[in-house]
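Researcher: I'm preparing a figure for a lab meeting and need a structural model of a single chain. I don't have an experimental structure, so a prediction will have to do for now. The sequence is pasted below. Please return the structure as tokens so I can convert it later.
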Amino acid sequence: MRQARVSISDEPDRLKVLAKIRGLTGTQLVMRLPGRPKHPNHERAFYAKNLWCMHHTHSCSVCNAACCVLTEAVEAYDEATNHYDKAIAKEAGDVIQACVYPLDSTTFLECAECDRFVCPDCIGICPDNDCKLHFCKECKLDPWGPCSWHNLI
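Model: Understood. Here is the structure written out token by token.
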């Protein structure tokens, strides 16, 4: 198996490669637009995808999505059945690890109802400013709607 040879010591080159990798993987640092929901862990768009998480979590409990592209590469390497697929997954992981700093803040959130960690595609936040609880789409039909108990208070 061919070993990945990734060494990017020059900062401008590293940033160019990092921008290219983020573009190819859909992990660009897109900032949140006004009026859009705020993610509690970062200032990027709520549905932002990570290249490399600061703190890895297990796969999403609802849809099984990986927490970041690096984790996807590691899982692909572990599940590969031939040398070619293993080499590609290893090289992808090596390139990410050589280029990424600082690491991305986690995008997964814990559901207030079932306590599972889920990806941004499978969770919402109560719009009530005093509440802001997170609910996965399996525990609350409309995870972005207000909690049913707000009307009882």
